[in-house]
Amino acid sequence: GRPQQGAGGWGPPPPRRRPAPPPRAPTELEPSHLSQHLSVLRRHHLVVSERRGSHVFYRLADPRIRELLAVARALLLTMLSEDRDRLSEAEGLPAIPGADGRAEARTEGDADGRSGG
After folding, report:
1. CA gap 48, 26 in Å, rounded
2. CA 98 – CA 65 distance, rounded (Å)
3. For the chain, first and last CA: distance in Å?
4. 66 and 60 in contact (C-beta within 8 Å)?
């Protein structure tokens, strides 16, 4: 029979199918800002870059960085949650009589803010 395409030297081999890359996570950073951030991460050896054609691909330099980021996020979320609880408690404090939320008002003739006596 006839030689298969790519076999026996006639024509290029058929293109290999490659799995589609995973979707990129959306970011709200402008491309120039994202590039600056990646440059800093690369300089500090947290990510490594690989150029393929006109594209540059980044990956974590060490898989433990992912764990570090997960722990840092959990810690920050806990701290923010505690701050929110404290803020809610503070908002529940009774009003201060005579205070309207502005800086303390001074009475006429009391330029230094002290009460006369």
Report:
1. 20
2. 53
3. 117
4. yes
Contact present, 61 and 47 (Cβ < 8 Å): yes
**Nearest CA-CA partner of 46 in 85, 72, 77:** 72
- Which value, to the nearest 10 degrees, does the dihedral of the CA atoms of residues 46, 41, 54, 22 take? 60
Q: Are 52 and 59 in contact (CB under 8 A)?
A: no
Q: Helix, strand, or coil here: 92? A: coil
Amino acid present at 58: Y
E strand spans, 2-78: 47-52, 55-60
pLDDT per residue of the chain (117 residues) written in tens, 0 to 9? 555 555 556 666 666 666 655 556 677 888 889 889 999 999 999 999 999 999 889 999 999 999 999 999 999 999 998 888 888 888 888 888 877 655 555 555 555 555 555
Q: What is the pTM of this model?
A: 0.48
Distance CA 47, CA 32 (A): 17
- Residue 67: which H helix or E strand, with range? helix 64-91
